[in-house]
Amino acid sequence: MPNTREVRLRIRSIKNISQVTRALQAVSTSKVRKSMAALMQTRPYATKAWQVLTHIARQPGRDNLHPLLNQRQQINAALVIVITSDRGLAGAYNTNIIRFTLQHFSQYPHPIRYIAVGRKGRDLLLRLRKNVIAEFSNLPAAPTFNDVSAIGKLAIDEFLSHRVDEVFLVYTDFVNMVRQIPAVKKILPLEVQYEEGRVESFELNSRHRIEATYIYEPDMNTILDRIVPRFTALQVYQAILEAQASEHAARMVAMKNATDAATELAASLQLEYNKARQQVITNEMLDIAGGAEALTSQR
């Protein structure tokens, strides 16, 4: 059994760690709310942009409207944007998204190029010797659209230059504080249809029956040239907001579990310390009693 001094130092160290994990839990809880608030602020613009885009895409000659809407007959390569975090201490958050990506594209018959968003994902992909063509890290805690627009622009350039024929987005979808699920979404060529998961489906399930009439200024093609690339970048931006909320939620849960474990361990060590201290006191009392008995017997 370790001595009381060693146990006391361990208890102090564990209590210090629990204070750190409790602080990280509180910070992550606050950041989750901010990330979700930022995500909700993008919904009105995304909803209207999607309605206009779907209206235009239903016009005759859809494949000739814009290059980003063209479905290519032959697929030679694909680009996968993987969104992870820059920091750890988030449980299995980063490992789960990389494992999901590798499993999902394990049977993909064509070469795959990767764009890593976040240092953890970059390190894991490079360790697995994947073809990472770009990486984006050190994003702000509350990124704006301009902070991440370069990611969407790079994906569009790769697609328009015919270096890739499909672009996929892999991120962690925020469901609630205790549940975050990996998700994959094809963003190029842009598939205009009513489906779940396309920017939270934009509430179109109740609206798509109403056919709106639009007057385009200056013309339809000019609007498409602006709205299609911007909407592609917007999907990347919203996925990053979802991933950040998921990261903070995963870190909050991980830190809560760490705090609970530290509390339980400190209580167990405190009990061990009390037993060791009681043993020391008992031994000292026995020594005193033995000494007194020896003195009595000498007299």
Q: How large is the share of residues in beta strands?
A: 5-15%
CATH architecture of the largest domain: 3-Layer(aba) Sandwich
Parts with pLDDT < 50 across at least 5 consecutive residues? 200-209
Instruction: List the total number of helices.
Output: 6
Mean pLDDT: 86
The biggest sheet amounts to:
5 strands, mixed
CATH superfamily of the largest domain: ATP synthase, F1 complex, gamma subunit
Strand order of the largest sheet: 3-2-1-4-5
**Helix coverage percent of residues?**
55-70%
Name the overall outline. Answer: elongated
Please give the number of β-strands: 5
- What separation lies between the terminal Cα atoms? 38 Å
User: Which structural class fits the helix and strand makeup?
Assistant: alpha/beta
Specify the CATH class of the largest domain.
Alpha Beta
The tally of structural domains comes to 2
Question: What is the oligomeric state here?
Answer: single chain
CATH-derived topology of the largest domain: Pyruvate Kinase, Chain: A, domain 1
Q: Give the C-alpha Rg.
A: 29 Å
Question: Could you outline the blueprint of secondary structure elements for this entry?
Answer:
Elements: H1 4-41, H2 43-57, E1 78-83, H3 93-104, E2 112-117, H4 119-127, E3 132-136, H5 145-160, E4 166-176, E5 179-188, H6 220-298
Parallel strand pairs: 1-2, 1-4, 2-3
Antiparallel strand pairs: 4-5
Helix pairs in contact: 1-6, 2-6, 3-4, 5-6
